[in-house]
Design goal:
Layout: E1 8-13, H1 28-43, E2 47-52, H2 60-66, H3 71-95, E3 100-104, E4 113-114, H4 117-125, E5 129-133, H5 143-153, E6 158-163, E7 169-170, E8 182-183, E9 185-187, H6 188-193, H7 201-210, E10 214-218, H8 224-229, E11 235-239
Parallel strand pairs: 1-2, 1-6, 2-5, 3-4, 3-5, 6-10, 9-11
Antiparallel strand pairs: 7-8, 10-11
Helix pairs in contact: 1-3, 2-3, 5-7
Bound molecules: uridine-5'-diphosphate (UDP).
Uridine-5'-diphosphate (UDP) binds near residues 14, 55, 139, 142 and 145.
Catalytic activity: UMP + ATP = UDP + ADP
Subunit structure: Homohexamer.
Function: Catalyzes the reversible phosphorylation of UMP to UDP.
């Protein structure tokens, strides 16, 4: 087994990573792929915290507005979507005999326990994967901010921000500009100065203040979660060091 650079990680995947890029909510192959890589990491004693978005099901601000919903309700619906996704991953990891718990910041006692960082940390030490569902538990935030928050609370070595089909942060939108250049390293200040769209501003401010390192990488490349933890993925690293 190749050397793993990070011991405790917080992996953020968007809800879309569970689909197949079309309108399908869940794609078996995509989900199995993520879960098998997590299994490999756990076997290698990497401690894995996971935040999953809900965008494959519902994005509060965008979709709620379309049908005239109050933003708060629409956002709570988005948080519920993240819990659905957490249950999918929980189930699939269990099928692979990976020990896993789901903690949620939005209480829903029948299916998940409430978020409690001390329990999360002791669970890592016992070899469990901890899935953090329900986002931050508050409307007007995103799961990127939840990931920054949880990564800080569990004292993760790195926040792995998985993107779907983009292998880092570019100076221009790489889907539109063929000559867009990928940054190999950025400081948080660069993100603000250059107004780069990596994650929402709340999340990036939080990472900056917590001095948390982020790796932005493409989850669609084969075994790239594993490669990211080995520090071998094509990626952009964001940190306070320049
Ligand atoms: N959301 C929220 N507060 C949070 C996290 C998420 O209100 O702390 C809602 C918000 O409406 C968001 C939706 O949940 O659009 C789904 O989360 P996100 O868009 O971050 O999912 P992703 O794009 O990563 O799949």
């Amino acid at each position: 087994m190749e050397q793993f650079k990070y011991k405790r990680i917080l992996l953020k995947i968007s809800g879309e990573a569970l689909g197949d890029g079309s309108n399908e909510l869940y794609n078996n192959e995509s989900i199995d792929n993520v879960c098998q890589q997590i299994q490999t990491l756990v076997k290698a004693k990497v401690e894995v915290g996971l935040v999953i978005g809900g965008g494959n099901i519902w994005r509060g601000a965008k979709q709620g507005e379309k049908i005239g919903l109050k933003r708060i309700n629409a956002d709570y619906m988005g948080m519920l979507a993240t819990i659905m996704n957490a249950l999918v991953i929980e189930s699939k990891l269990k099928a692979l005999n990976v020990k896993v718990i789901v903690q949620t910041s939005l209480e829903i006692n029948q299916v998940a326990e409430p978020f409690y960082y001390k329990k999360a940390i002791s669970s890592f030490e016992k070899g469990y994967v901890c899935i953090f569902a329900g986002g931050t538990g508050s409307p007007y935030f995103t799961t990127d901010t939840a990931a920054a928050l949880r990564a800080t609370e569990i004292n993760a070595d790195i926040l792995l921000m998985a993107k779907n089909g983009v292998d880092g942060v570019y100076d221009k939108d790489p889907n539109i500009n063929k000559n867009a250049i990928r940054y190999s390293h950025l400081s948080y200040q660069d993100i603000t100065n250059k107004q780069l769209k990596v994650m929402d501003l709340t999340a990036s401010t939080m990472c900056m203040e917590a001095n948390l390192k982020i790796m932005v990488f493409d989850i669609k490349v084969e075994n790239n979660i594993i490669k990211a933890v080995q520090n071998k993925a094509i990626a952009t690293i964001i940190s306070n060091q320049n």
